[in-house]
Every structure is written in C-alpha cells, then in structure tokens.
From TrEMBL:
Family assignment from sequence similarity: Belongs to the FPP/GGPP synthase family.
Protein source organism: Pseudomonas cavernicola
Gene3D superfamilies (alphabetical): Farnesyl Diphosphate Synthase
GO MF entry, a single one: all-trans-octaprenyl-diphosphate synthase activity
Enzyme Commission identifier(s): 2.5.1.90
Protein name (Swiss-Prot/TrEMBL): Octaprenyl diphosphate synthase
Cofactor(s) named in the record: Mg(2+)
UniProt keyword annotation of Oxidoreductase present: no
SUPFAM superfamilies xrefs: Terpenoid synthases (SSF48576)
Amino acid sequence: MQPQAFYRVVADDFTAVDDIIRRQLVSRVPLVEKIGDYIISAGGKRLRPLLVLLCGKALGRHGDDLRLLAATIEFLHTATLLHDDVVDMSGMRRGRSTANALWGNAPSVLVGDFLYSRSFEMMVELGSLPVMQILSRATRVIAEGEVLQLSKIRDASTSEETYMEVIRGKTAMLFEASTHSAAALVGASAEQTEALRTFGDHLGVAFQLVDDLLDYRGDAETLGKNVGDDLAEGKPTLPLIYTMREGSAEQAALVRKAIQQGGLEDLESIRAAVEAAGALDYTAQQARDYAARAIACLDALPPGEYRDALVELSQFAVARTH
C-alpha cells in the first residue's frame, strides 16, 4: 500500500507545516538550529501532524491555526525523540546517525528542551485553553510512560498489562493528543471529540505493536534503525512477554535470560523462539484488532476524502514494513 494517498489530500497544508517548523526553529544560538534542523530534516512519516490535519479537515476546519497545531505536535514529538535517543543510547534513527551520536548527550538533551519550550510558545499563540490542557497533560503522560519503561528494563516478570500501560504512555499518548487536540481546536461535539480521542489511542497502540513486531521481522536497512535494539537494552516487549508466557520452557528460559542480561548474542535464537512460540502472529493480530477498533471510531465523522484518508492511514499503520 502506498502511503502517498493519505498525504495527498493535505499536501498543501503539509508544505505549510514544514514552513512553520523551519520558522520556529530559529534561534540566536547556532548549535540549537543545527541540531534542530538535523533531526527535523530527517523526515520520518510525520504521522502525528498528518493526524491533526486530517482530523481537523474531516470536521470542516481549514486554516492557519490547524497548521500551527500540527507543527506544535511535531515539535513535541521531535523533542521526545532527542531525549529517547539519549536515554536509550541509540546510534541510529531513520537510517542515519542520531543527534547524540554526532554532538553528544548534553546538546541533544538541551535542544530537546528547546523544542519542548518552543512548542509551548506555539500553543500559547494558538490561544486555546482546551488544546493547552490536552497537550500539557500529554507531555506529562509521555514522560511517565518513558520512566515506567525505564523501570522495567531487564525485568523479565513484566506483564502484558504493564507493557500496554508503557506503550499507551510513551507512544499512543501523542497520537491521542494529536486527534483529541484537533477536535478541541475545531470545537467538535462531545461525541466526535471522544471518538477522535479514542481513535488516536487505538491507532497509537497498533502502531507501537507493529514497531515491536518489526524488531524481529524487519531488517536494519528497511527500518532505518538497529534491529534488535529493544532486546539489546533488555526491554520486555510483547513478543518476548508472550513467548515467556506461552512458549516452551526452553523458549521462555532463553527469552528470560536475554531480557535479564541484555545484548544481542542470541538474537537469531530469540527470533526463532518468538516465531515458533506464535508471539509474532499474536502481536500482529493484536495490532490488527486495535487498528480495526480505531477505524470503527471514525463512524462519528462525516463521510468524505479526509475520513477515507484516516481509514487508509490506519490500515497502513499495521501493513507497513518500516
């Protein structure tokens, strides 16, 4: 499936959002601009600003404030990426070196702080208290999700329930904030606002489930990151949790040891174990279920090309290979 179709309906807005991002990156400190420009120009799917634009337009809103909100969300997301790469000691993202690999941890953290701060200035410019409420809560929940994940590193007793709590915080929350804030900005009905909030949550969960699946089914070149990163860091993701719960005693012991010790010495054995235990199929099915539930929420929107694009985007989120 070509992702271009759901970008095409908001192509002009997307270009305008990019222009806003470039303007807001201006700083009197050259290194801030250099690192900010480096990470934002890496591109990525820009799904979160895309969600803002599609949801707002599906509800009949067209204008600069929607574009500013989309850019604000991208700044929040980019700030979390800078911080995540430092926390995870990652060396590669989107097929190229991370900012911390090039400039070091301290500048990466501080430029992440700059992007967070700038996003809040942009929120003030929007002048919507409901939007500020949604986005300020989202930044807190994301931080809590990251800390919860950190506290579970090398913890082989992590349950599926705790895993879901982690991904709802660290990933799904910003998807939810994107769709929810778009509804709030537009002044949507209570029913539509709740439907879009839930849509974002379900889509975000599906997206992260596929990410965790691709850690075992992908290859580094296609993914643009190091395959097995989560395993190397000792993060208990769903394929591993399921294998420990449902796999053979031997498979469970292999995974438990890998989580507790970290490292990639047994990556191929782990890949074989999670596949044989049915963990990858289980994770893929969970992702499809969440995507289907997300799509069902879109019944609250008026029919049209923007709603169709949101359906396509949800299908792409689980069909993707990177």
